[in-house]
């Protein structure tokens, strides 16, 4: 039986690794009515999309393969292929990851989770709301995977205490996943998908963090509210939940330690400079880029090391692979744009969208992104769609924010399967959320949330606030 299972697993791996490179070879040599550079880029794109989707090799391995393929096929020279891996957004994420790890090391994230849970006073609706709110807030600044990993034990403990025949497991576990996905929309620091979009927009129509938040925060709020109401309605139970064990944990924490105070101070100052750094530059003699978000992130990391909030050994625990994954998304996006592939695809797509009202186009893009993000990874969804949508927007003579931000935000609404984001893989791994329930609740949250996000993006961008 063991040998049969091993043979079966090898067979599954074999076709998962074979299919992407078969696509690469086929689309390299099949006659297509396009220029050779477009055909080669399309071949690489399909191969990479399949590798991202099937994951026969780790994401970081695919990330390292992309510049190799781009150089081998003559799309970029070596220096050009590697430039996206040194994009300012990479260093922003680097500083953000070190800041997030320092918050975890000193226990600030756990303290916040326990505090917000106790604020609910054990009322079922509030327990769900505050648990989701903690997930959302942390996911604004920390990886949503790390956020969910942190909160799963808290949710399991509350559900065990609450009794109620296990009825608390589903809303709380799905709630932290939905909350983390929604919170990730608000900034481009905690979520790789947003980072890829931010980096690609830099070359077209760049946004500041504050401008992003002007759309991202409302998008987060409508998704959060949809998730909260649907989950509370789907899984009714006792009106109150005992929190004795959580109270005991909170009592053991005691007052803020010196390391927690130092880390919290650095965090607050960093966020303030991310939002208002340009104003500081305006009224001082600093050079124009001195307080850019990337420089502030790097300075924040230096300060954290200096005040001993984190050591280098602890910083090694950071998810370094995220940096390469984001860099690969930027590299693939740059190749699609520079080779003319995104323009060609946009012309094909434009034939079906031509003549439709802008709001309807936004809704179509939103639901395409929703389907893709639940069956591809959300990183792959953004890397696939954003370069294309930038060109489609130009052809429609519309701001790229309409379609690009819609696709990016909806890519975080991957609540129905375990494929789209690692957080829902972790949630499924608890054994408390069956696939059928994840699909049911995820779909019921995703559809109204997608419509709401589309309307929010359309409304706010139409106001011309940028």
Measured by DSSP, the beta-strand proportion falls in under 5%
Q: What's the Cα radius of gyration?
A: 23 Å
Span from first to last CA?
A: 62 Å
Work out the helicity level.
over 70%
Helix/strand-derived category reads mainly alpha
What is the global morphology? globular
What low-confidence regions span 5 or more consecutive residues with pLDDT below 50? Answer: none
Q: Strand count, sense and closure of the main sheet?
A: none
List keywords for this structure.
about 475 residues, mainly alpha
Condensed summary:
This protein has 466 residues and is an all-alpha fold. It has helices at 2-29, 36-54, 59-72, 78-82, 88-106, 108-118, 124-141, 144-162, 169-183, 192-201, 209-234, 244-253, 258-282, 293-306, 312-315, 321-338, 341-353, 358-375, 378-396, 400-410, 422-429, 435-462. Helix content is 76%, strand content 0%.
């Amino acid at each position: 039986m063991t040998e049969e299972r091993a043979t079966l697993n090898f067979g599954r791996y074999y076709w998962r690794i074979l299919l992407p490179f078969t696509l690469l070879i086929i689309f390299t040599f099949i006659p297509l009515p396009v220029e050779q550079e477009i055909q080669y880029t399309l071949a690489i794109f399909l191969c990479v999309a399949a590798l991202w989707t099937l994951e026969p090799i780790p994401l970081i391995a695919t990330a390292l393969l992309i510049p190799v393929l781009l150089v081998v096929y003559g799309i970029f020279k070596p220096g050009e292929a590697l430039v996206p891996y040194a994009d300012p957004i990479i260093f922003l994420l680097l500083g953000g990851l070190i800041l997030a790890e320092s918050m975890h090391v000193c226990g600030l994230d756990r303290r916040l989770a326990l505090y917000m849970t106790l604020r609910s006073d054990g009322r079922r609706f509030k327990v769900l709301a505050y648990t989701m709110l903690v997930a959302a807030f942390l996911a604004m600044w920390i990886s949503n995977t790390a956020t969910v990993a942190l909160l799963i034990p808290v949710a399991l403990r509350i559900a065990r205490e609450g009794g109620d025949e296990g009825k608390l497991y589903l809303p709380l576990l799905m709630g932290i996943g939905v909350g983390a996905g929604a919170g990730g929309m608000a900034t481009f620091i905690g979520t790789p998908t947003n980072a890829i979009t931010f980096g690609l927009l830099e070359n077209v129509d760049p946004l500041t963090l504050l401008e992003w938040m002007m759309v991202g925060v409302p998008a987060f709020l409508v998704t959060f509210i949809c998730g909260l109401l649907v989950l509370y309605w789907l899984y009714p139970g006792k009106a109150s939940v005992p929190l004795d064990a959580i109270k005991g944990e909170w009592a053991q924490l005691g007052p803020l330690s010196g390391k927690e105070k130092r880390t919290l101070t650095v965090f607050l100052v960093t966020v303030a400079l991310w939002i208002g750094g340009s104003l500081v530059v305006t009224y001082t003699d600093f050079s124009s880029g001195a307080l850019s978000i990337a420089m502030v992130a790097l300075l924040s990391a230096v300060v954290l090391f200096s005040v001993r909030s984190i050591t280098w050994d602890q910083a090694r625990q950071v998810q370094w692979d995220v940096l390469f994954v984001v860099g690969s998304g930027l590299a693939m996006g740059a190749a699609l744009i520079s080779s003319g592939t995104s323009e060609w695809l946009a012309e094909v797509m434009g034939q079906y969208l031509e003549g439709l009202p802008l709001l309807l186009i936004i809704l179509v893009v939103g639901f395409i992104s929703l389907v893709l993000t639940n069956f591809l990874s959300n990183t792959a969804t953004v890397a696939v769609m954003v370069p294309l949508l930038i060109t489609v927007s130009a052809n429609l003579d519309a701001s790229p924010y309409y379609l690009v931000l819609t696709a990016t935000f909806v890519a975080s609404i991957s609540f129905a399967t375990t494929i789209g984001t690692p957080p829902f893989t972790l949630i499924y791994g608890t054994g408390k959320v069956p696939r059928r329930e994840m699909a049911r609740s995820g779909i019921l949250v995703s559809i109204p949330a997608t419509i709401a996000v589309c309307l929010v993006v359309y409304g706010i961008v139409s106001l011309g606030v940028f």
